[in-house]
Amino acid sequence: MDLDIQCEEMDPSRWAELLSTMKSCRSIRLDDCNLSSSNCKDLSSIINTNPSLTELKLNNNELGDAGIEYLCKGLLTPSCSLQKLWLQNCNLTSASCETLRSVLSAQPSLTELHVGDNKLGTAGVKVLCQGLMNPNCKLQKLQLEYCELTADIVEALNAALQTKPTLKELSLSNNTLGDTAVKQLCRGLVEASCNLELLHLENCGITSDSCRDISAVLSNKSSLIDLSVGDNKIGDSGLALLCQGLLHPNCRIQKLWLWDCDLTSASCKDLSRVLSTKETLLEVSLIDNNLRDSGMEMLCQALKDPKANLQELWVRECGLTTACCKAVSSVLSVNKHLKVLHIGENKLGDAGVELLCEGLLHPNCNIHSLWLGNCDLTAACCATLATLMVAKPCLTELDLSYNTLEDEGVRKLCEAVRNPSCKLQQLILYDIFWSSEVDDELRALEESKPEVKIIS
Fold this sequence. Notes:
Layout: E1 2-6, H1 12-22, E2 27-31, H2 37-49, E3 55-57, H3 64-75, E4 84-86, H4 95-106, E5 112-114, H5 121-132, E6 141-143, H6 154-163, E7 169-171, H7 178-191, E8 198-200, H8 211-220, E9 226-228, H9 235-246, E10 255-257, H10 268-277, E11 283-285, H11 292-303, E12 312-314, H12 325-334, E13 340-342, H13 349-360, E14 369-371, H14 382-391, E15 397-399, H15 406-418, E16 426-428, H16 436-448, E17 453-455
Parallel strand pairs: 1-2, 2-3, 3-4, 4-5, 5-6, 6-7, 7-8, 8-9, 9-10, 10-11, 11-12, 12-13, 13-14, 14-15, 15-16, 16-17
Helix pairs in contact: 2-3, 3-4, 4-5, 5-6, 6-7, 7-8, 8-9, 10-11, 11-12, 12-13, 14-15, 15-16
């Protein structure tokens, strides 16, 4: 049995009721439930007495260091079988790290630790690394985003990586590491015995100077399938270096996030080679890069290559216009793999969406999720979108937020949703203005077709 509760205030009677349920749960989630250190005493007892409990999520609660101390008493008992522990944004400091170190050292069942959004600091995480180095520790996933880490942490992390072959996922995003530290980390990763699968370094102060070393990790670690360096100013020159590693025969990358990296259309030539030759690559995010129509057209040419297996493409806010829509449409009509297309916040206009729909309506197209928010659309394109919703049962998610569709456009969409052939599960319509009459129609539609969520 699982317990999954979010955003609920816990009064004493409700808490007592849940404690009884928790005694037999395999997974407990209590995110955003206004829990405090006093609740951790009870949770410690649950951990101690419920050997079937393997997952505990307590994100966004003011547990504090005192709460973690109580919790860890349960975690340190021989009967504890916990495998996954989430403590993100729980008001922890470096003081909690000594307690967590003892858990890492003593509890081989623990394979995931998520402690991001806590002010652990470099000193605190150095203590955690001591626990990682203990032979008893079998941790596979470590999440340390927003932990106020600095460049000084890398030596301790590298020492831990050298001794921890089990570690598969390391997230250090949103810490001010800088190029020197990231280079040092990458050299450590190349030498380490661990088969790292995920490396997240978003917003870490990286420039093109680090990209040669990140590229070396890509070419040396065939286990690495998920790399995110978004929100770093690597530029076109940095991307060119990364592509050397991405194109290496050893590289088996599946997910690549490059959002807000100061890329331009000049990067698209290198990216096109990766898209057309790296058959393992399934997901790419290029959000908030100034690729423009010329860059998008290069990417589209690559996506028509038979070896391109990409399933998800995120090109939101990339300076695109109607001019690139014919190229995108041609991809949709030949590429059977692409399932998710996020192309919102681009000035596609009604004419652009009409062109896209030509490809979307092609029998080869298997799109599941289409995001067209803030694309300068009006009611004029809604008849074609309605046709798409009915004709494509594979389409389960459509985002048209921040477009001036008005009553006329929204009514056409509603008519499509009512059609039994429409299999849409989510229709997202944020910040679209319609009359009270249309509002009543939307509510009635949700009641008559509860499997469809209309989010507004």
